[in-house]
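Weekly structure sync, notes
Attendees: PL (lead), two postdocs, one rotation student
Agenda item 3: pending single-chain targets
PL asked that the sequence for the first pending target be pasted directly into the notes so everyone works from the same version. It is reproduced below exactly as submitted, 160 residues in total.
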Amino acid sequence: MPRGTAGLLIAAILAAAMSNLSAALNSLSSSSMVDFYFRFRPDADEKRRLRWSRLATIAWAIVLFGLAVIALHHVGRVVEVGLQIASVAYGALLGVFLLGVFTKRANQTGAIVGMACGFGIELYLWLGTSVPWTWWVLIGTVATYTTGCLASFAGYAMSK
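Predicted structure, written out during the meeting:
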């Protein structure tokens, strides 16, 4: 491949990777702010919200970087590492989505409890077992959905 074309190809790949990473960090920061910070501090001014949003972005970048470093020590292939990291979170994400779609009595508390349980199980699978990473999403989804249903129904039953 000619030098100019190879350089443009590498630049395009890096631009796409940076765009993807930027979108992921902004989404994580926004979710953290809306779900946690704004809930406990609804009267915070714009300056404080912006500062905490930037800190949340930095914190998520450090978390993702740490996960990548840990994963690279376990496996040498970049694609496999990326899929492993995604598999740790996607099971809990899919479980909460299915919880909202398939159950009418699901509530926020049940979803949070289910997601925490599913994510914890996926972290355990990743760091403490030899279960292949291709199963993590399924196991995390089932754990999140089941725990979320039980927590939602328990909360519903207690409120009556």
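Discussion points:
- The chain has a mean pLDDT of 85.
- Helices lie at 3-40, 46-74, 78-102, 108-128, 136-159.
Action: rotation student to compare against the earlier draft before next sync.
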